[in-house]
Structures are given as C-alpha cells and as structure tokens.
Design goal:
The chain has 6 helices and 11 strands. It is an alpha+beta fold. The chain has a 5-stranded antiparallel β-sheet, with helices on both faces. The chain has a 4-stranded antiparallel β-sheet with strand order 4-3-6-5. A two-stranded antiparallel sheet has the order 1-2.
C-alpha cells in the first residue's frame, strides 16, 4: 500500500539508488559505502496497468493481475463478471507469468460474455465457409477420381480391342467369372463359356488346366502350354497363358494358333520334299 494513496489500494514504489561520485560500486559492500540516497517513484497499480493496456481493445478480455496471492488489478469487466457469477468456470482462459522489478506477477486473462457471444454469432458463418470449402475440395477429388477412372476404362477398352486373344477370369475350381472374346474377327473361333470350363474342355484337358492353375498359385509364375481342342468337329490348336490374379482367381489368355501350326507343318513338308529331291539327284 502507498502512503500517498488515500484509498489504500495496492501500489508500486520504484527505487533508484544514487552513489557518491568517484567511489567504487562494483560489489555489494562497495555500493553500500558509496550509497548517497534514492530517487523513488510511487505508482498506483491500477493506473499503471490501465496505462499499459490503453492501446488494447477494451471489454474483449477480463484481466486480473496478482503478486503471489495479492490481487493488484482487476478490469471493470472482470469485477462485474465476478459479481454476477462467482462459481461459473470461464470457457476460455490463459495464465501468464511476468517479472516486474524483481517481483513475480501472474496475469489471468479470460474471455468475457460479449466476446463469446460475438464468437458464437460468427460460428454459423465459419461453419458455412468451412463446409463450402470442404464441398469444393471433395468435389475436386471426386471429379479427379471419376476422370481418372474414365481414362483408365477408355485405355482398357482400347487395349482389349487390340488383343487378338480370348480372356477369361477363372476361379480355383474352374468356374468362370468373366469371358471376354477377342474383338478381332481374324482371331479365330472360341467356344463360349457360361459358368465353368467343363462346358468346353474334355476331362483330360480340364484336369491338366486345373493342375496348371494350382502350380501358378504355388509359384506365382506364368504358365504357358499348348493343346488341341475339338471345336464343332474341327481340331484346333490353342496356346494357353495363365497367371495368378488375386488369391483364388487366374487370368487365362487363349490364342488360336491353328493357322500358324498348319503353316509350320506345310513348311516342314516342303522342306522334307526338297531334301528328298536333292538327295535323289546325287
């Protein structure tokens, strides 16, 4: 308390020591011997803090300043809020420590009702703005995914149209998941599969293909072989490529090589005939 303050409110007394000219003052003892007197300035705590907060918006925050357990300052809004409701816990608060002239002050800041109500009035606008932003972002992501999926589908269709082979997705037990015939007319004729490979493959070929499937699952390696299949009374040659597609499915690529086989047979016959002619001429 300051003797100059008739209201007996908490205050500050700032002291500045004055030393005799020419005397050393490097140590505590030397300063005591050289001490001439003090210049002091009494400060009313409330006026001092109000001056310090003069440039800040008033009424937005409640402010309390303590020196240990002694309340040095409380803003008008804080005093009125305390008088209205002693038990209600502030929704937003902050506590900061500050060193002032060797003394430790504790500053308590809390949001007042006006600030909270203004914040709550702005909340619907904030929700609308954030919701609009999220909608734009999600729309962009969805459009990108759809666009990417569309490009991927277009690419897949183009690739399938260019492949001169039959494509099948088949489960481990031989049931057919997907049957995609070649779009190229010159690719040959393939028997349609509705539900199971047994519809087009005789027992021996079916058993061999199921064994190849198990080998592919075990080794995760591509399986390639050839077989002959009777199609509408005509014996045809096919090349089979089989690769695992997931845990219980395989992708089967079937190519009709009948024409290629026939050409190779014709070339071998012509080679043998020419060889026989050459030997007979010797």
């Amino acid at each position: 308390m300051l003797v100059q303050d008739q209201a007996q409110k908490p205050g500050l007394l700032l002291l500045l020591p004055l030393y005799k000219a020419g005397m050393p003052a490097q140590t505590v003892e030397a300063r005591r011997r050289a001490l001439f007197g003090f210049v002091y300035a009494p400060l009313k705590t409330r006026a001092f803090i109000q001056e310090a907060l003069a440039g800040e918006p008033s009424g937005a925050l409640n402010v309390q300043v303590y020196e240990q357990q002694t309340l040095l300052y409380a803003s008008e809004s804080q005093r009125s809020a305390t008088a209205q409701n002693q038990s209600q816990q502030p929704r937003y608060q902050s506590v900061e420590a500050l060193e002032v002239a060797g003394q430790r002050w504790t500053l308590h800041f809390t949001a007042n009702a006006d600030l909270l109500s203004a914040s709550e009035r702005q909340q619907p606008k904030l929700i609308l703005a954030v919701g609009t932003l999220l909608t734009v972002v999600l729309t962009t992501i969805v459009w990108s995914l759809v666009s990417s999926r569309g490009r991927a589908l277009t690419t897949n269709r183009a690739m399938l149209a260019a492949i001169p082979d039959l494509l099948l997705r088949v489960k481990r037990d031989g049931s057919c998941v997907d049957f995609i015939p070649p779009a190229v007319a010159q690719a040959g004729y393939f028997l349609p599969v509705q539900t199971h490979l047994s519809e087009v493959l005789p027992p021996a070929l079916l058993q061999h293909q199921l064994q190849r499937m198990e080998r592919a699952f075990a080794t995760r390696a591509l399986q390639v072989w050839e077989h002959q299949l009777l199609k509408d009374g005509k014996l045809c040659d096919e090349e089979i490529r089989l690769t695992p597609c997931g845990h219980d499915e395989v992708l089967i690529i079937v190519r009709d090589i009948t024409e290629r086989k026939q050409v190779n047979i014709a070339l071998e016959k012509e080679l043998l005939r020419n060889k026989a002619l050459f030997q007979s001429s010797l």
